[in-house]
Specification:
Blueprint (H helix, E strand, L loop, with lengths): L11 E2 L10 E2 L20 E3 L4 E2 L4 E6 L2 E7 L4 E6 L2 E7 L4 E6 L2 E6 L5 E6 L2 E7 L4 E6 L2 E6 L7
Parallel strand pairs: 1-3
Antiparallel strand pairs: 2-3, 4-5, 5-6, 6-7, 7-8, 8-9, 9-10, 11-12, 12-13, 13-14
Length: 155
């Protein structure tokens, strides 16, 4: 963890408008995250994630259907999902397109700037509305999953 975290108030941005750099990225023109009290541009920082708990070691844990999913992210924008014994690989493109390879099928996800994600998985559509209050609501198979996010990095 670098020194910039110590004096910076980090707000995790779940309203990502780009899938290309979902790791830790610094947005110069971001108005969602302000660093110090003076709000200088060099101290703006954002963490774009699509998961529940994000650690600085690029580990994501998903709790859904009682199963914990662990995702290790690489700097090459490759995600490997271990879920129900299967490994899912996601290659991210800069055109806001995600291709999911899962159980031999390719799933494409197009993200909108209106903070709406539509997941087409096994013929079902998952809609996730992201809030700035670090709350995600998952509608999957008719069930709603709520996740409260901590403001502390590495929670």
């Amino acid at each position: 963890m670098s020194e910039q975290f110590s004096d910076t108030v980090v707000t995790i941005d779940y309203l990502s408008d780009s899938l290309s750099d979902l790791e830790c990225e610094s947005l110069r023109d971001s108005d969602l995250v302000r660093g110090s009290k003076n709000g200088s541009r060099s101290e703006y920082m954002t963490k774009k994630v699509t998961n529940i708990w994000r650690s600085l070691q690029h580990l994501e844990k998903f709790t859904a259907f009682g199963v914990v999913y662990s995702i290790w992210r690489s700097l090459q924008h490759l995600e490997k999902f271990t879920a129900f014994g299967d490994v899912y690989s996601i290659w991210r493109s800069k055109q806001h397109l995600e291709k999911f390879t899962a159980v031999g099928d390719v799933y494409s996800i197009w993200r909108r700037l209106q903070h709406l994600e539509k997941f087409t998985v096994f013929g079902d559509v998952y809609c996730i509305w992201r809030r700035l209050q670090h709350l995600e609501k998952y509608t999957a198979f008719g069930e709603v999953y709520s996740t409260w996010r901590s403001l502390l990095p590495g929670y």
